[in-house]
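debug: dumping io for the single-chain case to check the tokenizer round-trip. Nothing else runs in this session.
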Amino acid sequence: MWEAALNQFPRFVILGGLFLVVVLLVIGVSTVATSRAAIRRRLAETATARGPGAAASLRGPSGPDAWSSLVDAIEKRGISLLDTNNAGLVATLAAAGYTSPQAPRVFTLVRVGTTLCLPLLLVAATLINGAPPSLFKLYMFGSLLAVLGLYLPNLWMSARASRRQDQITRGFPDALDLMLVCVEAGLGMEAAFDRVGREMATTHPLVAGLLANTVLELRAGRRREDALRRMGERAGVDQIKSFATLLIQSNKLGSSIGQTLRIYATEMRERSKMLAQEKAHRLPVLLSIPLVACMLPVMIGVLMLPAAIRVVRQLMPMMAG
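debug: decoded output
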């Protein structure tokens, strides 16, 4: 039965699938290695530079990477990878730090690749194995791996976005304090953003990147209102969205930016303190779960076991007699 199924299944499909797996793995490893090296280089240049090169280094590499080239090659053949009106996916990718126009298409390509590659890896493993499973088990596990490959990139992207938002939330109160010092020293909003971004490039690089991108957009001629809103959208954090809205309203109404920053910085500190207190108050409840599930049965057993042994010793002679 297994040999007949293999004879009906074209071997070039298996070989093509294995080739696709190897190509995607090589591209993924090379992209990760290149991006990490580029990040370290840009952070080093940003930390040391104090001229126009520091802002220019935050624009990223000028040429397209391997993923973008692969996406362009696929779409040139008439295969559309994504509906560009999918705003939810674009927002999720932006919250995870992927703001490139090619990011949604690359993400769709990765999902398609993982959906196809995991079942093909199972087929390859069964071909190498001496005792292959039945065809029903192969179909069942292949379907499960296909579903896993379809949703695994979404789970990874959500986890990355959540981790990035947490890092931005932790670093933003320090940025607010530095902005307040800069504004009270006489700097404008754009100059304060630039100064704070350069000072926080090593301690909080994500917050520094948000501020640097906003400064670049303002220098490129974008309206201040649009640049601030785009900063909130890129961050994906409610506190930064509220901060952007507050600055926009302060600019429209002509109120003092220094006073606005002081009030919002105080609110951010109070909010961080309340979140820390909430986590501290939640800790005893979370600790009670392993205590009840693990230690309580052991304690009950220790307390009840001597009495149970004594009862058994008393009842055994009576049952024997």
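debug: round-trip ok. DSSP finds twelve helices and no strands in the chain.
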